[in-house]
# Entry
Amino acid sequence: MAQADLVILGGGSGGYACALRASELGLTVILIDKDKLGGTCLHRGCIPTKALLHAAEVADSAKESDAFGVRATFEGIDMPKVNEYRDGVVGRLYKGLQGLVKSRNVTFVEGEGRLVSPDTVEVNGERYTGKNVVLATGSYAKSLPGLDIGGRIMTSDQALNLDYVPKSVVVLGGGVIGVEFASVWKSFGADVTVVEALPHLVPNEDEACSKALERAFRKRGINFSLGVRFASATQDDAGVHVSLEDGTQMDAELLLVAVGRGPNAGGMGFEEQGVAMERGWVLVDERLRTNVSGVFAVGDITPGLQLAHRGFQHGIFVAEEIAGLNPAVIADVNIPRVTYCEPEVASVGLTEAQAREQHGGNVAVYEYNLGGNGKSQILATTGFVKLVQVTDGPVVGIHMVGSRIGEQIGEAQLIVNWEAYPEDVATLIHAHPTQNEAMGEAHLALAGKPLHSHA
Ligand SMILES: Cc1cc2nc3c(=O)[nH]c(=O)nc-3n(C[C@H](O)[C@H](O)[C@H](O)COP(=O)(O)OP(=O)(O)OC[C@H]3O[C@@H](n4cnc5c(N)ncnc54)[C@H](O)[C@@H]3O)c2cc1C
# Structure
């Protein structure tokens, strides 16, 4: 039986970050994964989708080049070549990660693990015992009752591996994954319709962002049906036939089911070992401890935001907690969120509605329009930076829409997490001409000294 300070089940963002930090702190680590090190994010999530979105941006640049006085012709998408580029990116990162894990003396065990006692995971008949065990088995793409995945009906897992551009797609779900795929396929030339049961696209975002994205998608010719529920779908040689509850019928070549991700926490012995779960999620306290002593859980199997950088931070937190460093608790509300469709949506902290719910009338809001931002004009993008402030207090939310605006989330999250006042940020200098200036301008305005805007 192999022993270590830490046995980690799952080598995705949460699990491998925990392994790297724990070994840095001098702990011995066994990291177990049944698939490739790096998990969903590296192989089926963040990285491959963002590579496709970059290829989509290149396609759009070619199509729109005339507006910039550049003569280019868009001849189409060579999907196998796009996939080759994407696989190259993933492959280099995968190799780097494998090297990193090896160099930190983490023992990587390949195989399907099962929790057979609170301190032991069994893999292929071998037992691995840890002073602490970290559950990091991630999530899976959900479907709806009666909607079977297969053939023309697919989740992001299959959609990522298509070697052709579909002529038409219905995307079920207007959340992050749905709008990102809709954006890629539209840029690649497909006819796209998004169906969302809630009243808005990216419904978890500030309503101003949702509405701006809807305007932009409309302009791009991406169709969407909002506030209407899916009823049923059938498929045959001709395509998929989708019915909505309001009687609408849609035909397309493919149906992408992007209705959210569920916890991958069943059938691995967690319940048998007494780990408290609710609707499949592993319950943790704010220090990421399950109810079973010595057993922690990180990342997508815990209720909350499903983001790779949340997983990284969870993993680092647990390693430091076990090493006795008493790390600061991670609050979901201040974790930055970026949706990488065109245009991008980026946010951190409270939406205006949430702030009003918490602080009543004591909320000030300012929206800086990218129309006044030189770099955004150069890029020919529209959008805004919206600040939500507790009146005479700190900025508690930043919400942005625009091409490439995701890159501004770095400063936004510092501002919100350091509880900066508009006056603090107004004294800092933002380089010209960058989209980052919009962040500075918005704070200048909220501090009562607007430069290129009206207060
Ligand atoms: C299409 C898509 C796009 C995304 N884009 C972004 C993005 O742009 N930015 C972002 O922040 N997040 C994004 N995400 C979310 C991100 O991928 C997840 O939040 C992140 O991967 C969660 O990390 P994790 O460690 O909790 O789980 P995972 O990465 O899912 O890792 C879990 C690991 O556990 C292993 N495992 C499971 N069961 C067992 C078992 N019994 N034995 C051994 N191993 C097991 C799995 O093989 C897997 O490697 C995206 C997700 C998808 C699907």
In short: The longest strand covers residues 126-135. DSSP finds 13 helices and 24 strands in the chain. Residues 9-15, 32-35, 39-41, 44-46, 49-50, 112-113, 136-139, 156, 177, 264, 268, 299-300, 306-309, 311, 340 surround flavin-adenine dinucleotide (CB under 6 Å). The first helix runs from residue 13 to 24.
